[in-house]
Write a structure and sequence with these properties.
Chain A is mainly β. Helices cover 4% and strands 43% of the residues of chain A. Chain B is 0% helix and 50% strand.
């Protein structure tokens, strides 16, 4: 998902995600389009009782480029907790890990129909893989194993299938102070920076953000000279988003509901903190954790998902200092907002509410950063309501 | 005017204090040393008796509380007696309205001790020990069990608020003077955010609001307080650290000016004092400044009785730094009259010329 954000505008096809899942779409580069619009959306849905889930697998939708309406193309069943999704560099293959377990699956994508066909499955050699990325050379897949605190590298074959784990990187260190959520290293994301030179790994367990390089010749992860940046104890850094043009990055700190603004040096990978601000307004006094974070394609606004407050925080970005200022708080339209994603044009934001089984679309005002419920605008989104109802009926997520 | 300063003494606390220090303040703000009460182990938080002719101190990390008589002529202290608090690491204390009882928070063992005060101000033996309970917060080392950090009488002195750092609650306790017992109504307890670690609170002088500094997540919660029912209602949570602060820091002391317009909170780590303006309508807080504390680890802040100066005790740099308060803006400006004393952790002021005549 993060990689989608980093694709140049001409190549940006894909987008969205589901609760603990990524939905995404793709189109062929040859297709003429007035603006980059996703053609297909894939939604990973948790399936296990342990996660109180009633999803059935990966659902593929066709997204009507004219109306934005979704219609189901395929339901890939017999998958356990498929969650975050990633493409290969050409968007011909799709990969998902299986949350709470130890596997990653590879699928071929039919470019015309959008349908997925399973290629193979490999062990990630660690528990609870939560995020994944394909390297710059398109020959390796890198997976973050949350529970066991490791990063695994799996070679990709030319046919898109995966080979067994090739390299394995531990992130050992004294964990943060939260005895429940920080029992060990918990890498939560493997995110390439904009230049795809460095892999930034927020580690929720260690309160650290690691900076790594991937050596595609050797097929190996190596520590970058920049090393890591230490975050406040108990902050629990979870996900990162990079400014499209300026040298800034923004990190959602899950456990203390804050957002860190960082200067990100594209040359050496170093992350230097600039600011820490709450992800929630001061008038909210209840429990909350910060989940997802993303930046609007122009870099003017950062969106943060708050679970508990159940609102999306919009923050304006000062383009010279990189500092954030809260602008508005928009209801996510459901409970337990875990994931959201912008469509390739950046004009629509899809919010996945894990606990209320909904994906709610919002229109994004690029000038003000304001989010408006797109479903209130039937002219723009006919059919979407129906699709969401279908999702709910299908027991997408409990 | 006299200032009494509790100073930690033990090696375990890395302390350099010598005991209880007594100073006399002149009109120019100079502190003259009057007395060191020696042979006291970690005298820390201090409280006056009702007639303000007796001073009580807890002995941090240990299990005792001591009483001293104050000589109103020269401010000097003479020991009255010492009692057990029935628990470990007493950290805070307060008397009841009538001045007949002393309540002590035993931090390590999660209890509130009740001791009767005798006619001469000496302490009687423990007459009740209230056990607090709750699910410990998520912090591995700081939240292993209930850790009451303060005994804060409400303005009517009907009840006491007990911010509990260990279980992320503010307990509400009532004193039954007839039965000589403390009563806890857990249904009134305010639940703080997980890991927030409520530490110290301060009541607004006139409006029904209380501001509680949460130590571990460096925030202040503004609560509405219904003095009749004893119910707290959280209104807002604001950070004590300015957004450009990226270091590890923990909130510590909190004070509100006598006019109710400004709140001050010290930040240990950031080593600063955050300044908040109190909204005159909503009584919510807005951070309007943040002054360096002039030292390291500002564990405690105290206003002088007039509310025109704030004194910051920097525990690890052995200084008390006085700040002048701008009455209009609340801004702090440090004065030159820095007081050097080992490991200061609490300061209370006494102006005998303005004290009620003792019985």
């Amino acid at each position: 998902m993060m990689s989608d954000c980093r694709l140049g505008p001409s190549r940006r096809h894909a987008l969205l995600g589901g609760a603990l899942a990524v939905a995404r779409a793709f189109s062929t580069a040859a297709q003429p389009a007035p603006r980059a619009t996703a053609r297909f959306a894939s939604v990973g849905c948790r399936t296990t009782k342990e996660r109180n889930a009633s999803g059935e697998g990966i659902t593929v939708f066709w997204v009507d480029p004219a109306t934005g309406a979704w219609s189901q193309v395929q339901l890939v069943k017999d998958l356990v907790n498929p969650s975050f999704l990633a493409f290969d560099r050409q968007q011909r293959f799709l990969y998902t890990m299986h949350d709470d377990f130890s596997e990653v699956s590879a699928f071929r994508i039919d470019a015309d129909s959008g349908e997925l066909s399973l290629l193979n499955r490999q062990s990630t050699e660690g528990r609870n893989p939560v995020h994944l990325a394909v390297d710059e050379s398109n020959r390796f897949l890198i997976v973050a194993n949350y529970a066991t605190g490791t990063l695994a590298v799996l070679p990709r074959k030319p046919d898109g299938s995966l080979e067994p784990v090739y390299q394995f990187e531990h992130l050992p260190r004294e964990p943060g102070p939260n005895k429940v959520e920080q029992t060990s290293s918990h890498p939560h994301q493997v995110a390439y920076d904009r230049a795809r030179r460095f892999l930034i790994v927020p580690d929720k367990g260690l309160d650290r953000i690691f900076c790594l390089r991937f050596d595609s010749d050797q097929g190996k992860l190596v520590a970058a000279d920049a090393g890591f940046v230490q975050v406040r104890p108990g902050a629990g850094p979870r996900h990162i988003t990079f400014h499209p043009t300026a040298a800034f990055a923004f990190v959602a700190h899950e456990l203390d509901s804050s957002v860190g603004a960082y200067r990100h040096d594209a040359q050496c990978g170093a992350m230097t903190p600039i600011q820490v601000i709450p992800s929630i307004p001061d008038t909210f006094t209840g429990a909350n954790t910060a989940a997802e974070i993303t930046i609007e394609p122009s870099g003017g606004f950062v969106f943060v998902f708050n679970r508990g407050h159940d609102r999306i925080g919009t923050f304006s970005v000062d383009q010279s200092s990189g500092r954030l200022a809260p602008v508005s708080w928009t209801s996510s339209g459901g409970k337990g907002p875990r994931f959201f994603t912008l469509d390739p044009s950046g004009t629509r934001l899809y919010a996945a509410n894990e606990n209320s089984d909904t994906i709610v679309p919002f229109g994004v005002d690029g000038e003000t950063g304001r989010l408006s419920l797109a479903r209130n605008n039937p002219d723009r989104q006919p059919g979407l309501h129906r699709v969401l109802n279908d999702l709910t009926r299908g027991g997408w997520q409990q | 005017m006299y200032a009494y300063v509790g100073c930690r003494t033990t090696k375990e606390r890395g302390a350099r204090g010598r005991g209880l220090e007594v100073f006399q303040l002149d009109a120019q703000g100079t502190w003259d040393h009057v007395q060191t009460v020696p042979d006291l182990v970690n005298p820390s938080f201090l409280a006056f008796g009702k007639a303000r002719d007796v001073l009580y101190t807890v002995h941090g990390d240990f299990s005792e509380v001591s009483a001293f008589r104050i000589n109103s002529q020269n401010g000097r202290l003479s020991a009255l007696n010492q009692q057990s608090t029935g628990g470990r690491n007493p950290v805070h204390l307060a008397t009841d309205k009538a001045g007949h009882f002393l309540l002590v928070a035993n931090y390590a063992t999660g209890t509130i001790a009740l001791l009767p005060i005798e006619l001469d101000g000496a302490l009687g033996a423990l007459c009740d020990l209230l056990e607090l309970s709750g699910t410990p917060g998520p912090h591995r080392s700081e939240q292993k069990g209930p850790h009451p950090h303060q005994v804060l009488p409400d303005p009517e002195q009907r009840r006491f608020l007990i911010p509990d750092k260990g279980v992320d609650k503010v307990f509400i306790v009532r004193l039954d003077t007839e039965a000589r017992k403390l009563m806890l109504d857990d249904a009134l307890s305010a639940i703080a955010r997980q890991g927030a670690a409520p530490r110290h609170g301060a009541f607004h002088p006139t409006a029904p609001f209380v501001y509680v500094a949460n130590e571990l997540d460096s925030t202040i919660t503004t609560y509405g307080y219904d003095g009749v029912s004893g119910r707290l209602a959280a209104k807002e949570v604001v950070p004590t650290l300015p957004p450009n602060c990226i270091v590890t820091s923990h909130a510590a002391g909190i004070q509100i000016t006598p006019d109710g317009r400004f709140v001050y909170v010290s930040n240990r780590g950031h080593d600063s004092v955050a300044v908040f303006a109190v909204d005159s309508q909503a009584y919510t807080l807005r951070q309007v400044g943040c002054a360096p504390s002039g030292g390291t680890k500002p564990r405690f802040v105290s206003l002088d009785p007039s509310g025109s100066a704030l004194f910051v005790a920097n525990e690890t740099s052995d200084t008390i730094v006085p700040f002048h308060i701008d009455r209009q803006t609340g801004a702090l400006s440090p004065s030159d009259h820095v007081v050097h004393t080992g490991s200061p952790v609490c300061i209370v002021f006494l102006d005998p010329s303005k004290e009620p005549v003792s019985q």
